[in-house]
Amino acid sequence: MSPPTAAPQALVLIAEDEPEIADILSAYLGRSGLRSVRAADGRRALDLHLSLKPDLILLDVQMPQLDGWQVLAEIRHRGDTPVVMLTAMDQDIDKLTGLRIGADDYVVKPFNPAEVVARVQAVLRRVRPGGEAPNRRFIRIGRLQADLESHEITLHGEDGDHLLALTPTEFKLMVHLMRAPRRAFGREELLVACLPEGEALERTVDSHVSKLRKKLEAAGLDGVPANVRGVGYRLGEGT
């Protein structure tokens, strides 16, 4: 039985300068019902992103012309196209750099191509729930909906919808957690990805999360974000 397709006919841009890796990824994506197009350097990747508007980008870090970090920064300047980083660099600082700039996920080489496809499908499910039109800038997880254009988060309930009055940092924290709702995020990662540069202490994350949780509780959602002992936080099961 073929793997389930997260988003029928979604277009994935493979930005990878090694032809053998691009061939393998293209073949595995095709078996899962996903279309793909390739770019062998960073500049070409940006050109194809602009002209084809892919639903997701598989982005290698070490590429000619422009590296993956430069490409990711420009893509985030343009909008919120989902990006999964492909990198041979497995140090924590490299992962944090990608997440801070705005990567949705990362896979370290050498990788299992089937795992890459699974990650792609998971990200597409988050950003295109129910097969919505591509590039619609919403994330929906359970009762929560984040509007990435208006920077608003709404909690849907039986008594109506509640628009949460969040600070910019609280919004960033929620969106970061919603992008990977089952994943436990460390405080340091959340600090780098979501908080202003001047807030350099991990306990500052706890303060922001505490205020965020109180606002969600007041709107009728308890236990979100959830504590993960010894790690940090994840979105939680209450959604």
Report what the structure shows.
Helix 4 packs parallel to helix 7 and helix 7 packs across helix 8. This protein folds into two domains: 121 residues, Response regulator (Rossmann fold, 3-Layer(aba) Sandwich); 97 residues, Winged helix-like DNA-binding domain superfamily/Winged helix DNA-binding domain (Arc Repressor Mutant, subunit A). The radius of gyration is 18 Å and the shape is globular. The strands form three sheets. The chain has a five-stranded parallel beta sheet with strand order 2-1-3-4-5, with helices on both faces. A four-stranded antiparallel beta sheet has the order 6-7-8-9, with helices on one face. Strands 10-12-11 form a three-stranded antiparallel beta sheet. With 239 residues, the protein is an alpha/beta fold.
CATH superfamily of the largest domain: Response regulator
Main beta sheet: 5 strands, parallel
* Secondary-structure-derived class: alpha/beta
Helix content: 40-55%
Question: Helix-strand pattern, N to C?
Answer: EHEHEHEHEHEEEEHEHHEE
Determine the mean pLDDT: 82
Q: Name the poorly predicted regions.
A: 1-8, 130-136
Q: Please state the second-level CATH architecture of the largest domain.
A: 3-Layer(aba) Sandwich
InterPro entries: CheY-like_superfamily, OmpR/PhoB-type_DNA-bd, Sig_transdc_resp-reg_C-effctor, Sig_transdc_resp-reg_receiver, WalR-like, WH-like_DNA-bd_sf
DNA-binding region: 136-237
Domain Response regulatory: 11-124
Pfam families: Response_reg, Trans_reg_C
